[in-house]
Structure formats: structure tokens, C-alpha cells
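Late entry, written up from scratch paper. The run itself happened at the end of the previous shift, but nothing got recorded in the book at the time, so transcribing now.
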Amino acid sequence: MANINLLPWREERRQELRQEFLTVLGGVVLLAIALVLLADMVVSGSIENQQSRNSYLQRNIDELNAQVEEIQQLEQKKQELLDRMKVIQELQGNRPIIVRIFDEVVRTLPDGVFFTDLTRTDTTIQLQGVAESNNRISSLMRQLDSSEWFNEPNLTSVKANPDFGEQASEFGMSFKITTPSVDVEEE
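Output as recorded:
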């Protein structure tokens, strides 16, 4: 029989298989590293893209917030101007009313009564005066009550004052101002 030594061949085959395994293993490792780097680049690119989109949105949100704040300031200024215009229009519209009030005070004043002090606060008139008798004060109250410009006459004080006559009295009174309806004014 022939004496053949197969050990070196097997050893060479093992070396070749090991070399082939290490080469495939190296290729797989390189491929895995390449895939990881590629995945990292894709994820980093996505993150940068999203961050740029977020910064774009934030810039636009800041611009819109500034515009909203400016609009609110303009609306506030507009409201202030409208309030001023309303006050001016009310003052212009109420100008003749004070003349009518004084005219009506004179019309309601009976003979034998005169005023020493007249004060207006909003829609209330406080007055102090002197009357020849208590009947004159009653007459004044009735005329104030029947006036279309005044209502709710309220006598606050009455004191005898002999300086102006035997039956003379000092009195204090208040009443409210009302504006008659347009139909009453036209009549």
C-alpha cells in the first residue's frame, strides 16, 4: 500500500477555510461599520433637517407673536380713541342741556323763593335757599316734581330764619336731572 500523508493537505485546507472565514468576517464587519455610519448619517441628516424646520417655525411664530402684540396695541389705542371721541360727543351733545337746566330752574322757581347755593354732581343738584314761607317751599317742590327735566325732589333741611321775614325759612333740597324724551322736547 502506498503511504500517503494527508495531514499537510488538511492543515492547508483548514488554513484556507480560516483565511476565508476571516476574510468574510472582515467583510461583514466592514459592511456593518458602513451600515452603522450610513444609518448615523441618515439620522443626523434627519435631525438637522428637523432642527432647521423647527427654527424656521420658531422664527415665524416669533414674527406672528410680534404682529399679534402690535395688533393688540393698535386695538387698545383704537379703543382709547373711541372712548375719547365718545366723551367729546357726549360733551358736545350735552352742551345745550345745561342751558335748559338753568332755564328750567328759573321756570320752577316760585315768587318769594331765592337760592343761595346751587351744586351739581353728575345727575343730582343740591341747592340751598331761602323762602318767605313753607308754602313757597312746597310750591317749589311741586313745580320741580311736575317738571319734565327734574324728578325726585327731596327736602333735606328747613330752618326758620327771621332775618328775611317772620315766616322765612332756610332750606336745603336735592333733585335729579332727567332728559325728557325727544317727543317731549319737540313739543
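DSSP finds three helices and four strands in the chain.
(Scratch paper discarded after transcription.)
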